[in-house]
Amino acid sequence: MGTVAAVMVAVVVAAGLAWSSSAGNVTYDGRSLIIGGQRKILFSGSIHYPEARRDVAVSHTESQGGGLDAIQTYVFWNVHEPFRDRLGGPPPFSDRYDFAGRYDLVRFVKEIQAQGLYVSLRIGPFIESEWKYGGLPFWLHDVPGIVFRSDNEPFKFHMQRFVSKIVSMMKSERLFASQGGPIILSQIENEYQNVEPAFHAKGPPYVRWAAAMAVGLETGVPWMMCKQDDAPDPVINACNGMNCAETFKGPNSPNKPLLWTENWTSMFQRFGEEPYIRTAEDIAFATALFIARGGSFVNYYMYHGGTNFGGFGSSYVTTSYYDQAPIDEYGLIRQPKWGHLRELHAAVKSCSDALLTGRHKNFSLGQLQEVNVFEEASGKCAAFLSNSDRRHSATVQFRNAVYELPAKSISILPDCHTVVFNTAKVNSQWRTRSNTVRQVLDHPERWGAFGDRIVSMGAAPFSATGLLEQMTTTKAETDYLWYSTSYEYRSRIGRPVLHVYSLGHVVHAFINGVYAGSSRDVPGVPGTVLEKEIALHQGENNISLLSVMVGLPDSGAYLERRVAGLRRVTIRGSRNRTEDLIRYHWDDVRFPPGVDPVALNLGSMGKGEAWVNGLSIGRYWSRVEHRTAGLLNHCKYHIPRSFLEPSGNLLVLFEEETGNPLQVSVDTISVRGICGVISEDHPPSLFSRPPPLRQRRPPSVDLQCPAGSTISAVDFASFGTPTGDCRSYATGGCHVFSSKAFVEEACVGKEECSISVSAEQFGGGNPCPGAVKSLLVVASCG
């Protein structure tokens, strides 16, 4: 690691900042954090040690300090404990931690300390951060009985073990401020309120437990939870977002300070998207407004961009991370953003005494204009004049003086008279990044080509019947998983069309070693569909499908239940014949193993009887002429699984009329689509869970997949006045737009779920007064 932290930190150190390593205990009141007995206005910037570059020159950067007081970082559990020798159960465990090189957290914190900066340590250990699996190690997925981020003993055991490990490391190096170190603030959990409702009764106890566990570690510094309005005392609830002065409800106690843990300087970028540009003026306005309304801690997320090395970016997130930050991915200062914020910091710091000890008053100066005044008993005064009109400038009067405020701007007056800074007026220079070609790698003799073979039947390292779930199979160690099977083709089905449905991001198809086509998922539409006419030869054909994940998910409830990879593979002929390959032995075809019921398709036969392994499955009569309805087909005949052997099954047909046995098939029958539609005036099911005493049980939509499968997607959901039924449906004139998201959160990944048909379930209120509301849900099992 060596100079890693100095490399990243020296650029942001505040010019002339004097910092004492003996800060003492950190406390707080309703105004600010209190460090060493003194209230502080603090500006912080996020730098993530696994993402930042390691070779920026630092010899001249200290004088260019950006005016920060602190550096904030997440702790990345899945880089520090990527493997676990034993899952579940009591100790002892064989700990296998990695804190070397770029992952040397202690060295990173010490380098920050050496630059005279404080540290805000976000231990999580769930972090989201557009990071693979939200920072959780994938081995947690395989812990028996685990439910992530809930009142669940296996998860709490491992979470407490890791958080305690990090705290112990910091204590042993005396890095908490209470020990004379730089760490003044720590975070437990992250944005849990976003998913808490999905855990129902298991959510609130988990919040209380997490807070009590963290506080019980006795670090001597405050703990915080961001986006958690009900953070238990003494944990501070903090805000994430772009405009926390306008969106944040504020601390849940008058004795807690107003903290902004993520002031987004840009936005993360997905492959195929343009970079999101947030201007220096917009960031400055939002920051100044937060301070003007009583804020005392602002952290810029990100302040230093980075690189998602090793494929740690989450689904579709680019390798480049927050390159538009004040310091870019390469460690270069991005102007005017960096310089404009430096001026803002200096202007705010010139008001520190009044902000921290003065009496705060707010006055209206117009319809979209206001002033926030901080005045001390001694007469010292600071004022923030705000114009929230996004289009028009404004002229305002304050204390017998006239001030011009540009559109969407704030003027800072450290003496309530003189404007020293306006957020819309940029003084800093602009910089444009350019590329210079230094070497062209155009010498063929210096290149070598190594082709990856297409995995074919019998060549895979292991085989299984059915389609394996991708993340469980790969343990998230690679984005790629080959699926290969052998398919016997007969031209009687007509021109074959391959249909693949996957919950991966990309599918590549190869037929007999020849590329046949690819498909990728569409943003906002669950799953990837590949449908391609393919060329098959008579007899055995090898079908190889490469499923690709462009990163793992990083957020959402029940992350451990997410599934990926191929879910359905069929071959459809031009003669309306479809063969389902889902239960094929993807590396040894046999009679269909698994749990789905098996049927013999005798549509090509006439009338007779069938035996399997000497056991009759009964008479068959595939085509019957009805006197009024015409020809009726009875094609499928159940074969009890108890009749079947793993291989070598014998089928005997006694045919009375005529038929073609070459077109007989063995099928499996499964439930892939489920649906429910219930209105408020439905009587509740007698089999629903009993309600608390004296409470009416509302009706509910109850969904359940067959054993061995889970709800993989919600295809349609509408609470309000949906039209139609489970065969044909649409949203009606009244529709709660969050219906689908709510049902997905409640159901996806589960074998069964129940959603009450009540407005309270969907955010409260009455979306359509006077109308009887219904809930219609259409979902898929996989």
Automatic annotation (TrEMBL):
Alphabetized GO MF terms: beta-galactosidase activity; carbohydrate binding
EC number: 3.2.1.23
Biological process according to GO: carbohydrate metabolic process
PANTHER family: BETA-GALACTOSIDASE RELATED
Matches recorded under Pfam families: BetaGal_gal-bd, GHD, Glyco_hydro_35, SUEL_Lectin
Keyword Methyltransferase: no
Protein name listed in UniProt: Beta-galactosidase
Domain SUEL-type lectin: from-to ranges: 695-782
Family of this protein: Belongs to the glycosyl hydrolase 35 family.
InterPro entries: BetaGal_gal-bd, Galactose-bd-like_sf, GH, GHD, Gly_Hdrlase_35_cat, Glyco_hydro_35_CS, Glycoside_Hdrlase_35, Lectin_gal-bd_dom
Main location: secreted
Reactions performed catalytically: Hydrolysis of terminal non-reducing beta-D-galactose residues in beta-D-galactosides
Annotated CDD domains: Gal_Rha_Lectin_BGal (cd22842)
Source species: Spirodela intermedia (Intermediate duckweed)
Cellular compartment(s): Secreted, Extracellular space, Apoplast
Signal peptide: 1-23
Keywords: Apoplast, Glycoprotein, Glycosidase, Hydrolase, Secreted, Signal
Keyword ATP-binding: no
Entry's Gene Ontology cellular component terms: apoplast
